[in-house]
Each structure stands twice: as C-alpha cells, then as structure tokens.
Amino acid sequence: MNPGLGLAALTVVLVATVAFGVYGLRLSRATSDFYVASREVSPLWNASAIGGEYLSAASFLGVAGLVMAYGVDMLAYPVGYTAGYLVLLLLVAAPLRRSGAYTLPDFAEERLGSLAVRRVAGVLVAVIAWLYLVPQLQGAGLTLQTVTGAPRWAGAVVVAVVVVGVAAAGGMRSVTLVQGFQFWLKLTAIAVPALFLVMAWRSAGAPALTGPDIPRFGHTTVVRLQDPVRFDVTAPVTVRVSGRLDGTAYTAAGVRLGDGGHTAAAGTELTFPGGAAVPHRDGLAPSTGADWANPLSGAGGRSHPLYALYSILLATLLGTMGLPHVLVRFYTNPDGRAARRTTVLVLVLLSAFYLLPTVYGALGRVLAPQLLLTGQTDTAVLVLPQLTQAGEGGRLLAALATAGAFAAFVSTASGLTVSVAGVVSQDLLRGSTRGFRWASLVAGIPPLVMATATSGLPVADAIGLAFAVAASSFCPLLVLGIWWRGLTDLGALLGLVAGGGLAAVAVVLTSVRGPGRGWSAALLEQPAAWTVPIAFAVMITVSLLTRHRLAPAAVDRVMLRMHLPEEVGSGGPSLPAVRPPTAGRS
After folding, report:
1. Which residue has the higher pLDDT, 50 or 571?
2. Which helix H or strand E contains 189, and what residues bound it?
3. From residue 121, how far is each of 198, 423, 427, 428 by CA, in Å?
C-alpha cells in the first residue's frame, strides 16, 4: 500500500475519534455522563456503539486469518460471538438494566451485600479487559507496520494515547459517540472491498477454494519479507532469491529448496513459480485443501478438535455476558425494554458483519496464499484489496480497509478503558469525575506494556482466551445472581475465584508455553469447557452449604427490582436504587 494513503486513512480515523470525543466532552456535565451517559442512549445508537466496541481486532482481522489458515472449524468464533447476544438477551439484558448498577462490581455488591465479592469482581474486570486490550494494541501495531513499515510498537502507542485521551476527556458520553460512528465505518470498510474481491475471484475463473493439498501459487508470485521468517517447505521447489536465505546471501539467484525448514532474513525477496506448493511459516501448520473444508479435521494441528470446537462455542456464547465493556452498555439504556431492543438490533448488525470476514478468509487462500508463508494471515483484510485491484483503485480500497481496522482497535479499546476506569475510580478514587480521568490513564498503561513486550498469539485466539475467563467468572455470577435467590456471598466469592482463577492460569500457561499437543494442551488452550462447569458447581454447592448467610429481605428487594417490569414498578411505591457514584463514595 502507498504509505501516504495509509497514513491518511489512519489520520482520518484518529481525527474523527478526537472530534467526537471533544463533542462528547461538551455534553458531559454530571458524573453519570461519565459512567452511563445519563442513561439516555437510544436503542439504535446503543446497538451501533455495542457493535463498534464488540467488533474488535479478532472480528476485523483475526476471524479472516483463522478461516484462511485453518478452515471451517474456525467459524465457531463468529457464530459464538453473534449467538452470545441471544443468550444475553434471554437471560441478562433487561434484569441487569433494571438493577440500577453502574458496573459489574456494583451489581455484585448490591445483589450479595459483600464488599469482598465487589473487590474480586473489580479485579476480574481489570484482568478480562487487559486480556482483551493487549491483542487490540498488537493488532494496531501489525496494521501500522503493514501499511507504513513502522516499528510494531508504534501503532500500539498511538491507539493507547488516543483511547486514554478520549476516555478521560468525556467518559461514556464521548465513547458512545465514537463507537457508534466507528461501527458504520467498519462495516463500510470491510463490505466495499469484499464486493471487489468477489468480482476479482469471478474474473479469474472462480478457482476452487480447496484442492488435494495445501494451497498453490496460481501464478509467479514475489514474496517480500518484512521480518525474519523460518518456514517449512513440503514439496521441493526452485525459487529466485534476492537477500539472505539459510545464512547465504543471493542476488537474483535460483535456489533449490528441499523439504524441511528454511530461514530467510528480513528484506529477503523470494519469487515462486506458478503451481508451486505454498510453504508455511514454522508453527502455523495450515490445513490442506481437503481438511480446510471438512469440519473437525484437526486443522492447524489442534489436539482433539471436537473438544476444542465445543469449548470455543461455550466460551463465546457464555463469555459475551461476562465482558465488562459490553455489559456496561446496558446501563446506558433508559429502561429494560430499551435494553432488550438494543440486544435485538445488535444481533442483526453483528449477523450482517460476520458474513464478511469469512469471505476474506476463503478468498485469501486463492488470491493471497503467500500470507501462509509469512505467517501474517491476520493481515488478509488489509492486503487482499490491493493484491486483487491494480492501480489507484486498489490502493484506495486498501486505505479504506486500513481505516476500518484502526476503527476496530480504537472503538474496542475505548470501551475496555472506560470499563476499567469506572471500576478503578469507584473503588479506589472515590468515584469522582477527576478520579475517572486518572483511572483512564491507569487502565491504559498495563496492556500497553504487555502489548509492546510480547509477540502474542493470533488475535482471535488471544481474545478467545479473554472470553473463556469471562465465561468462567461473570457468567455464573450473573445467571445465578439474577435467577436464583439462593446464591450467597460466599458461594459467589469462591465461584469467582475458582472459575476465573483457573481460566486465568490456563491463559497464562498457554501464553508462556505456546501451542502444544495432547489432552493437556487442548485443556489449557481452550479451558472454558471445564472451568465454566467448575464455577457453576462451586457457586451452587457453597451457596447450599451457607444458606444461613442469606438476608431474605435484602435479597427479595433486589430480585423484585430486577424482575418487576418498569410499567408495573412506576405505578407503585418506588424501589430503592443503587447509589450513583459520588465524591463521597468509597
């Protein structure tokens, strides 16, 4: 891509983000504007804002990259991401809005009357948000490097600075305006180039998406390597090399590559003949043509694919209701009915969006198979438009896709930063507007350090682990807290620690050790299938053993507020509401 066009696209996104943030600052007057936008957001704009923050790096880049490399099994991610809102609609949306809470720790304390549960919930909010933020910042670095060649840390720093500034300036009011705008930008940025990709594929004779082995180069292809790459060759091939290959320098020389591993230095240029099998980056292990289209084929070397599929679905279906940056959105609706309408609209918007990354992933195997060699399958959405459309048109489409990618990083990171800042400011900084602004800075620093210090997993896999922690902690708390009056404070506390703690340990071990084989690797890489049942079992068992800790009057009051329709409640005596954050609250 032309670096000038790429930078222009990024500048437009960042300037628009700051402009909406400044406008939101003018509208933010009271403390409730910073936390819940004074509960005045309409269902359509709130649904757009939810879509804006939910469609993250995993949605815009990661899904396409996983589908391209590993095939139809990876459709579990978009299916789970979308269907999770159906579970949220049926079980959580309206009662949670009627609870009157501002944050998840607020809900935990109000429902269970326990400061200890509130504090553990606050820690888990930060853990989940930071796990989710790191791949956003790493995706921003990858995008900026792909577009301009800048160091990978630069994109992470740019997004972190803009996000913290917007969140600190206008709080939820500003972030809502930013995210609503960015959803429609992302949808446009991924839909318009997709139309041209389909036309390019058809004009090339609609080549088959699968074949007898791994993808092959459809024509003579030049691959330029930005970083050092170790790759595996599955079939001997003669290539033209300019640069350093296997420790030897070449200048436009023909080199025979045998089966096995090879290493190319940064800046090396490899020219492959048409029809040659595409080598793949060491550790990527893409599926063959036949396995790519077959469910449960174990694509990508994943151990026990049936278990992995069910665990991914469980994490994404139940993890959605445990994402703090999603749940806080329902507190901004005027009432429970508006919260339900918002959720239905979100289902429609997400269903439309998630059709598109799959198109990029499938066509990427035919139109840009060299991404399997470089290992940068996550950049398929960024590079495909320019590879398939020559001239200025291709560069403009690539710039549009780049703008959408940066909008994905900024909008999701904004919501996550506001979620953590809300918890930190209420629990540590007395819930003031000034405290919220300082908390926004505190919320952005740890994930920036982690993003620049580690290389990370593929973005969709990394975010899937955040979903697993959310599903193992807040999902049981919300479902049991809303629908079972027998939940006690001790049951909730131990369940949060057991489920969330075990899932977090699995995430850490997976990040440290990387992909593995066998049951131990499968259980650690996709922990939701066993950590979610453990969390539910611990909460229920301990609650039954500690029924004497229940305060029936207090429980009945909260349960009545959550389940009594607004039109009924408005005609009778008013129910006590959760106190809004004030300067005097500790």
Report:
1. 50
2. helix 152-203
3. 46, 9, 11, 14
Phi/psi of residue 299, each to 5°? -60, 145
pTM, full prediction: 0.80
Distance CA 72, CA 209 (A): 12
Report the alpha-carbon distance of residue 574 to residue 468 in Å, rounded.
38
Cα separation, 53 vs 413, in Å, equals 7
Residue 231 reports pLDDT greater than 80 = yes
* CB burial of residue 482 (10 Å; 0-12, 13-18, 19+): buried
Instruction: Identify which of 447, 378, 537, 454 has the alpha carbon closest to the alpha carbon of residue 128.
Output: 447
Best CA proximity match to 347, nearest among 103, 565, 54: 54
Nearest Cα to Cα of residue 324 among 414, 408, 415, 407: 415
Q: How far apart are CA 282 and CA 413, in angstroms?
A: 31
Dump pLDDT digits (tens) for 387-418: 777 677 788 888 888 888 888 877 777 777 77
Buried b or exposed e, range 465-479, using 16+ CB within 10 angstroms: bbbbbbbbbbbbbbb
Region of residue 536 (left: phi > 0; alpha: psi -120 to 50; beta: else)? alpha
pLDDT tens string 467-495: 899 999 999 999 999 999 999 999 999 99
φ, ψ at 471 (rounded to 5°): -65, -30
